[in-house]
Amino acid sequence: MRGSAVRADVWLSDVGAFVRTDVESYLASHPEDRYPDVLVERLRQLGVFGATVPVEYGGSDRPAPEVARLGYELASGWQSLAALTGTHLKLCGQLLRHGTEQQRRTWLPLMARGERVFARAYHEQGVADPAALRSTAALHGGTGRLSGHKSWVTNARHADRIVAVVRSGDAVIGVVTDPRRPGVEIGAELPRPGMLGVSLTEVTYRDYEFDPDTEVIGGPGHDLTDALRGYDVTSYVARALGSADAVYACALRFVRKSVHGRPAEARGAIGLRIGELATRRAAMHAVWQCLQQPAAGNHPPLAPGAAKVFTTATLQELVRAAALLCGGTGYAGPLPALGRHYRDALALPIIGTPNDTLLSLIGERELAGEDA
């Protein structure tokens, strides 16, 4: 299934079928907090890990709308798979844009085949800007040494390589690190309500040695600061929409099976609740459509940050309302997907660029009289 020869409709149909069959059956028979090796192998076979990699480097070079649809499909089944692949594809793009030609030829074919799955160690608690990172790298002769502590590293425990984003002098650089080499400590699994299965840990580096010529993305001193500040959050909108559609379909199926035996007044209340769910879902779809289209007339463009804030917040409202609508069955019954989407939805306003940070940036632009 790898390669650009696979048409978009066929590829996305295969991914959707994988979510509806493989993912659903896996979650029905395995603990949610176990690393899903069998599903990751199927993602390799589907060519998911090379979706953003150019054909010349072994990928399928899918356009942005197809990659967004990939995130939508995976999130409709399990947000954890969307998180794992989203981080990897993000780093494929970073290597493509900022890596040396030798780095692209060394890493991208392996990444595209899923033979080397990458994670990223970027976030540090209390740090909102890359220039303020506390983790550092310095040269000692011809060897680089990296030290620092990273929070909330997705897939750290199972990644083949981790890109550590650290300060080096006046620059912010990305160092490709091997988590199995000396100087890397992968912390214990962080307790959390959702986004299970794929690991989330802290990572500590202590005098980790690296080759600055081959293992710093773009070469020694290549500065990633502006790229990190300008990170696009569009993928989270697609993921919120995928979850919303799955939750709505689940609630609607359940209610349709049970509503006819209810008294008339109950049917009226149920219809009202379904109307609320449908309206929230329709608003999320409208936001997504606006995000895909250029602004027209006097209407300002919809910024990805505003779209992420709206859709991830609305998803929480939608999934909570769906759980309440399904009553005891929605809370503790034969609808486990509803509970999983409920727990996973809590993370979306926080991951990537947190919604509070996005709202602050939007507010600052508004106060300054700039376009949002």
Structure description:
With 372 residues, this protein is α+β, with helices and mostly antiparallel strands. It has 3 domains: 8-116, Butyryl-Coa Dehydrogenase, subunit A, domain 1; 119-224, Butyryl-CoA Dehydrogenase, subunit A, domain 2; 234-368, Butyryl-CoA Dehydrogenase, subunit A, domain 3, CATH 1.20.140.10. Helices cover 51% and strands 13% of the residues. It contains 13 helices and 7 strands. It has helices at residues 8-29, 37-45, 64-77, 79-98, 101-112, 212-215, 225-229, 234-258, 264-292, 304-325, 327-331, 336-345, 355-368, and strands spanning 118-121, 136-140, 143-154, 161-168, 171-177, 184-186, 200-210. The strands form 2 sheets. A 4-stranded antiparallel sheet has the order 2-3-7-6, covered by helices on one side. A 3-stranded mixed sheet has the order 1-4-5, covered by helices on one side. Helix 10 (304-325) crosses helix 13.
Proportion of strand residues: 5-15%
In the residues, how many domains can be counted? 3
Give me the secondary-structure category. Answer: alpha+beta
How many strands, what sense, and barrel or not for the largest sheet?
4 strands, antiparallel
Percent range of helical residues: 40-55%
Low-pLDDT stretches = none
> What is the N-to-C order of secondary-structure elements (H for helix, E for strand)?
HHHHHEEEEEEEHHHHHHHH
CATH class of the largest domain: Mainly Alpha
CATH superfamily of the largest domain: Butyryl-CoA Dehydrogenase, subunit A, domain 3
Oligomerization state: single chain
The name CATH uses for the topology of the largest domain is Butyryl-CoA Dehydrogenase, subunit A, domain 3
Biggest sheet, spatial arrangement of strands: 2-3-7-6
